[in-house]
From TrEMBL:
<dbReference type="InterPro" id="IPR052618">
    <property type="entry name" value="ComplexI_NDUFA12"/>
</dbReference>
<dbReference type="InterPro" id="IPR007763">
    <property type="entry name" value="NDUFA12"/>
</dbReference>
<feature type="compositionally biased region" description="Polar residues">
    <location>
        <begin position="147"/>
        <end position="157"/>
    </location>
</feature>
<feature type="region of interest" description="Disordered">
    <location>
        <begin position="123"/>
        <end position="171"/>
    </location>
</feature>
<dbReference type="GO" id="GO:0032981">
    <property type="term" value="P:mitochondrial respiratory chain complex I assembly"/>
</dbReference>
<dbReference type="Pfam" id="PF05071">
    <property type="entry name" value="NDUFA12"/>
</dbReference>
<protein>
    <submittedName>
        <fullName>NDUF2 factor</fullName>
    </submittedName>
</protein>
<dbReference type="GO" id="GO:0005739">
    <property type="term" value="C:mitochondrion"/>
</dbReference>
<comment type="similarity">
    <text>Belongs to the complex I NDUFA12 subunit family.</text>
</comment>
<dbReference type="GO" id="GO:0045271">
    <property type="term" value="C:respiratory chain complex I"/>
</dbReference>
Amino acid sequence: MSRPWQALRALRLRLFGPAKELVGTDQFGNKYYRVPKHETRAGQIIPERRFVEAINSQAYQYEMGDFPTEWEAWIRKKRNDPPTIEEILKNENYREEMKQKIENVSKKDKLLQTKEYQEGLVAEPAHTRVQGHASASYYGKKEPLQDPTSTAGTFQPGSWMPPASGSSGNR
């Protein structure tokens, strides 16, 4: 590079800072860049900056998983080196294996619970029905009674409703 070009490049670096460097691209097409650490004209040191140019330019189009976790860790400076394709594929395969193992364990657990319920080793969970603002145990009655029929010792939650306003007892 000739001397005048070197001077122009040095001047541009001093005025505008270094240009962004493409570090890599992920499988979704997002491009990852870095701007190296540099010094401004005033002598201020600007630390390295990392950023992504997403394939979806609209913020509302982002979804969970649009950026691989390895690249996100690099952007957030949790790791020094950008990830390799091999590393991303290896981690993706590992995640799929874990999902499959979790699914298998969950199936086995459900079968074991069903067997224990049938053998009477474990009580089945109570079924509740939401009434108003609280949950109350459901005892199999379809409609609440209009007149109170229970005493204090046998009262069931949700077993009695006050009569409608049109049928008052003061006739």
